[in-house]
Design brief:
By secondary structure, the chain is of the alpha/beta class. The protein contains 16 helices and 12 strands. Helix 5 links the parallel strand 2 and strand 3. The longest helix has about 55 residues.
């Protein structure tokens, strides 16, 4: 009961008691002014707006309603009534589809609704220029659902405004504190690694809730703490990422350093193979199979295919002859079938073709490509050495923002110590009776836009 009354009073005291006077500086009146401003500024392109309010729905004369109150005030300020709509008035799917078409076309330019009725499935983003949060829901997912109506593909506006309204010294501080606590817990569950992008995506919302809570508390030290906490969190994530990057660079350097001698060994073997390779083009073709030297490619290919057939099921390599200065071996790779090996200082692999001539062509092609292999290995060695030099220049670099982070941590600790002295001040002020001549909780209202806290 207390929570419900507190949320209503933070939105508009007339929800708690309808007979109370209308406060000119309430968040409802501030929202009316902001909605009218955006409505006029976007008149030329027929920009549209969404207004989210879960606590007060249209009553049609049965008590006070924030919806009805804001509509009357906007109409009085010159907004045509036909350009305003309440989603609660459209119950059927067909009626909602017609309403959404009007919003996308700019016929209805200001649409009021609750998170439940105007959240998921409300695809009206085409002309949206602003979204207003009059109250805070209970779940971070509800805030994401609201913001997701305007921050989505299909919106033709490059820049949009998201405005969250809070009443200073009211129950709004508790609501945003609750959202901050929940989203931090969800972040810890969902984030199991220090991947910077994922942390920013999840914790970015937590910082927004903390900023809103700080403004609602009315304590400038809390506002400063929220700012410093956000910056410390950002720099701490960058530092973690820096350490991870340094570890990765050292690992890459070690692997590449081990790869260089392997490439050099393959390069030397290719050079030596090239020096002993014999020419076999045209009439120079000659191959030794067993004790017989064969100069006919067709006959040689047929004999090799027979040896490959006998090798099926036997993984052991078996020497069957010599060709162009290389030993010729056959082995069965089981899944891939028989394979031919030409072994010199390095081992070269050829395929067994269905035709005799195709097998010989594969063998000759492999040996002819030693030149290309030699050039590729040379480029690989050069590229690997350059990469090692580049990594060496990056390894060991200090964290760029180390001093800035240290200074912010000291400020953070100092503010935390100061706040400990009056840590109950904000919560106590929620129920305090204002001194004579001071503003009541409902009379000092501000929007995040005034502080520069809104999404672009």
């Amino acid at each position: 009961l207390v929570t419900g009354d507190g949320r209503k009073a933070a939105l508009d005291l007339r929800l708690y008691e309808a007979g109370l006077p209308d406060c000119a500086e309430s968040k409802v009146n501030l929202a009316v002014r902001e909605i009218e401003r955006v409505w006029r500024e976007s008149e030329r392109k027929r920009g549209t707006q969404l207004v989210f309010c879960d606590l007060s729905t249209p009553t049609r004369g049965n008590g006070f309603s924030v919806y009805d109150d804001m509509k009357e005030k906007l109409v009085a300020r010159g907004v045509p009534a036909v350009e305003l709509a309440f989603i609660q008035d459209y119950g059927s799917d067909a009626a909602k589809a017609s309403l959404f078409r009007d919003v996308r076309a700019g016929v209805v330019r200001i649409l009021f609704g609750s998170t439940q009725k105007m959240g998921s499935g409300t695809n009206v983003q085409e002309r949206l220029v602003a979204l207003h949060h009059l109250d805070a829901p209970w779940r971070p997912a509800d805030v994401e659902q609201r913001d997701g109506r305007i921050l989505r593909q299909g919106n033709t506006n490059a820049e949009v405004e998201i405005l969250r309204y809070v009443t200073k010294g009211s129950f709004d501080a508790y609501m945003w504190q609750t959202l901050e606590t929940k989203v931090k817990f969800i972040s810890q569950v969902m984030t199991g690694e220090s991947d910077l992008r994922r942390i920013e995506d999840v914790d970015g919302a937590a910082l927004t809730y903390a900023e809103v809570k700080a403004i609602a508390s009315g304590n400038p030290l809390v506002i400063e703490k929220a700012r410093i906490d956000a910056e410390v969190g950002r720099l701490s994530r960058l530092q973690t990422q820096h350490h991870a990057t340094q570890y990765r660079l050292r690992s890459q350097m070690r692997c590449l350093g081990e790869e260089i001698p392997r490439i050099e060994k393959r390069l030397d073997a290719a050079k030596r193979d090239l020096s002993v390779r014999q020419e076999t083009k045209g009439d120079l073709f000659s191959i030794q199979l067993g004790k017989e030297r064969i100069r006919d490619r067709g006959i040689a290919g047929e004999l090799i295919n027979r040896e490959a057939a006998r090798a099926r099921g036997n993984r052991a390599e078996r020497l069957i002859g010599n060709f162009a200065g290389f030993e010729l071996l056959v082995a069965d790779r089981v899944s891939e079938g028989p394979e031919l090996l030409l072994r010199g200082f390095a081992t070269h692999f050829a395929k067994v073709s269905e035709s005799a001539v195709g097998t010989i062509r594969s063998i000759e092609s492999v040996l002819q490509k030693i030149d290309e292999r030699l050039a590729d290995l040379g480029r690989d060695l050069e590229d690997t050495r350059k990469r090692v030099e580049q990594l060496a220049a990056q390894v060991g670099q200090p964290f760029e923002y180390l001093n800035e982070l240290a200074d912010l941590v000291l400020k953070q600790q100092g503010i935390a110590a100061d706040l400990d002295l009056t840590k109950n001040q904000a919560s106590s002020n929620l129920g305090a009776v204002p001194a004579e001549g001071s503003s009541s909780p409902g009379e000092e209202v501000m929007s995040l836009k005034e502080f520069g806290f809104w999404d672009e």
